[in-house]
Amino acid sequence: MPTARVSRHELAASLKSRREELVALWLDLGDQGPFYDAAPTDPATRRDLVEGYLRPLARLLADSIEGSALHRSLYLDMRVFHLQDHSPADRPAVIGAHLTTELEAIASLVGYPHAREALQELHRPLLLEPSPDAQRLLMIGDCIMSETRLFLQTAYTSEAGLQTTHVNFHADHRGFRADEVLAQIERTRPTLIGLSLFSHNATPGWVALRLDTQRGLSRAAMRKRATGLLDSLREAVAVIRTATDAPIIVHSPAAVPLSRKEFYRPGIGIKRLVREMNTQLNEFVNASENVLLLDEAEIAQSLGGRRSAGGRVLAAQYRPAWIHPLRMGPALAEKYADVLASVNMVVAAKALLVDFDNTLWDGVMADGPVVHHREEQELLRELRRAGVLLIALSKNDPANIRWDEMALKPDDFVLHKISWRPKPEAVAEAIQELDLAAGAFILLDDNPAERALVEENVVGVRALDPADPFAWRTLRRWLAMPSTKRTPEAMKRTEIYREAAERRRAMGEVQDYGEMLATLKLRADIRQAQDTDLERVLELVQRTNQFNTTTRRRHRAELRELMLSQDHDVVVASMRDRFGALGVVAVVIVDRSVPGVAEIDSFVMSCRAMGFGLEYLLLTHLTTQQPDSEWRGCFVPTDRNAPAAGMYDSAGFRQDDGSVRLWTLASDAARPQRPAWFD
């Protein structure tokens, strides 16, 4: 037996020569092998697993030792094939529980004492804990999603990383299952969802329509059945929407063939079917919120057509494998990586700092005529109507701006920072006036020096280059994010924040706190939430981080159920002052299921209402409405909700057994004081 360190070539050669022995070893290991806790026992299932999983996996393991990054990516992806029911955060622990035993057994099989080190190096990525800042992608569909997931490992390069989970189905096995999808949404809390019901052999209805079209089907019959399939997509999206507002990437079909037999079937009817499906899908996506379209037919065409897109990436010896990457896979992964990069940029953003010259138009307005970018200006107006705050940030003389030429108007901007001051100084001032975190701001500026100065001196602000098409793709995709909604509240957001900035400036002129707040002539309306409040309550619960006692992110269906519950109160508070109305700015969920006890499940307040004492007015109102109850509250600290940390203490609640999380106001204790400055 050799004693020197084994070379990768020697180890790969030994693994190749012992492939069948390796398959037998894995079968003997049972749930201590690559099946984890799902080792097969049924003979027919074992035969299928050997052909479709273990033999290709054994070949891939050998090729991964000395092969390309693609071989390694495919091998590692297949190693988590049976772990899709586990959240990405749990997978390293499941794998690590027995990987050492497996690798030692493989090293013993090949007969090299140092083989274990090379095997450990190969498998190390499987043991890495995902970053808490990683994007979470839920992929719903057939093997097209397996291909996309595989190539995303190299296509998406964010430092925070990516967690992927796949709800896999196909026409021969099962179609879309609502219960399975909802369980994965609850488990993984995705930031982005991919949904493909019309790729390859995803659903029985799609497969049947594709085959009937190839045999000959009238256009009227095709259109009618295509409409029926689109109804199933609408139902799937509606199911997902009951659990999450995460943006959904909907795939349109390309009918890429999976077999050589399909290559030679007549294609005219299929092309007509693809066009019909895409037409209806475009109409659906354009009428839907938080939904993006991924055009598989367009991608296939860019690859040379359906047949070319269906070509295999790896050699024919991998053909029996369940995961069989096609040329379509890398192209789809690039599209997903681009969308994920956009999500990463705007998911926490609320405001856009907008440069003018050579950003909104070509040229310098002070020097004469310019060529306006009308479409881009209209996009920014659309973002403003969807609730994004626009800040004019231009090194210029305000008198030089010819507003009458622009699609954007002065009132579209919450703040005007048009001056010759350094931009980092103007940005820092805007952050202070709007009372938002720096991470809520994105800068759109053509000057690389200005972008660098702002990013380096105002940490948290991220910048986009308007000369890069990615910038405008990202801004358009922002309209499909949960942070943008076409609601009355969103349309008023610019006005509300502009009034808030004026309010802070006015308050800064008065020294006494009570006197200062009294000048605002504050008024509040506290009431039970109504159906018309649901969207705003959902927005507060899902988006508020700073004044949020428990940060429980409930979805729409949960909130509706709580609003109808006899054992719960969902109370909202709106506020106004002499500058205008702030709208609904707080929601409190109270659990009354235990007799004699009222427990504050969640206390959430918008950052624009912070500092006015509204939380104490709310607590006074609630506790005096039920004076004989013992009141309990819970505070769960996070890295961002420190502003809510002292509320219960200041309101007279007492710590429960010294816990910083549990607070109690006894039934005979004095109720919180009503702030005197509220009218």
In short:
By secondary structure, this protein is of the alpha/beta class. 44% of the residues lie in helices and 16% in strands.
The radius of gyration over CA amounts to 29 Å
Silhouette: globular
- Measured as a percent range, the helix fraction is 40-55%
CATH class group of the largest domain: Alpha Beta
Termini, distance in Å? Answer: 89 Å
Question: Sheet bearing the most strands, described?
Answer: 8 strands, mixed
Proportion of residues in extended strands: 15-25%
CATH superfamily of the largest domain: SGNH hydrolase
- Structural class, from secondary structure content? alpha/beta
CATH topological fold name of the largest domain? Rossmann fold
| Gross CATH architecture of the largest domain | 3-Layer(aba) Sandwich
**How many beta-strand elements?**
20
Mean pLDDT, nearest integer? Answer: 86
Which secondary structure elements does this structure contain, and how are they paired or packed?
Layout: H1 8-17, H2 19-29, H3 43-66, H4 69-79, H5 91-96, H6 99-110, H7 115-123, E1 135-141, H8 143-155, E2 162-168, H9 178-188, E3 192-195, H10 204-215, H11 219-241, E4 248-252, H12 260-263, H13 268-286, E5 291-295, H14 296-302, H15 306-309, H16 328-346, E6 351-354, E7 361-362, E8 371-372, H17 374-385, E9 389-395, E10 413-419, H18 423-434, E11 441-444, H19 448-457, E12 462-464, H20 469-478, H21 488-491, H22 493-507, H23 513-518, E13 523-528, H24 534-543, E14 547-548, H25 556-564, E15 568-577, E16 580-591, E17 597-605, H26 614-625, E18 630-634, H27 647-650, E19 654-655, E20 662-665
Parallel strand pairs: 1-2, 1-3, 3-4, 4-5, 6-9, 6-11, 9-10, 11-12, 17-18
Antiparallel strand pairs: 7-8, 13-15, 14-17, 15-16, 16-17, 18-20, 19-20
